[in-house]
Write a structure and sequence with these properties.
alpha/beta; Glutaredoxin; 5-stranded mixed β-sheet; 6 helices; 37% helix; 22% strand; globular
Length: 171
């Protein structure tokens, strides 16, 4: 095979790989509408859930995080700033942030939850309940409209991977 043919095949392979990469980056997220293009995610508190559901019944995502969690911060700074993902999330879900080490008591589903000192940091019993005792961060609990757990998503996800996981529940 001549040098020119090898060079041409390498160039075509490079273009194909770049095209596939571009497809993977853009094809799995929804295009933002003009009004939602720069709209940030609307985060709420656990105490807001019942009022939110009275106004509009939606699925709920609870972002269970800690202040020291590096990957929680990366998701806030990168994943959740993606305009396609933020539109998708705002349209389909009520979004709640919950610090798994907060010291304030919380009532959820009629049960009072509180902070438990343990080790260096401690934990909140609501986080332990939502994550079924497996406290790892970041974790995202997807609830149905009646506050029943549908899915727990653990670990860092980029915008595409996060939406792909959620598409199985809310396409």
């Amino acid at each position: 095979m001549s040098y020119l043919k090898i060079l041409l095949l390498a160039a075509l392979a490079s273009v194909s790989v770049l095209s596939i990469g571009q497809y993977l980056q853009t094809s799995h997220t929804l295009p933002p509408t003009e009004t939602a293009h720069s709209k940030a995610i609307e985060w709420h508190k656990v105490s807001d859930i019942l009022d939110l559901q009275k106004k509009q019944r939606k699925l709920i995502i609870i972002d269970v995080y800690t202040d020291w969690c590096k990957w929680c911060t990366v998701m806030d700074e990168k994943t959740f700033k993606d305009p396609y993902l933020s539109q998708y999330l705002n349209e389909r879900f009520h979004l709640v942030k919950f610090n798994a080490e907060q010291r304030e008591p919380v009532t959820f589903r009629g049960q009072k939850h509180s902070y438990v000192p343990s080790g260096r940091r401690g934990y909140h019993t609501l986080a332990a309940d939502l994550l079924q005792g497996s406290l790892s961060y970041p974790s995202f609990v997807v609830l149905d409209q009646d506050l029943n757990a549908l899915k727990v998503i653990k670990g860092y996800k980029d915008a595409i991977a996060f939406q792909e996981e959620l598409n199985t529940i809310a396409p």
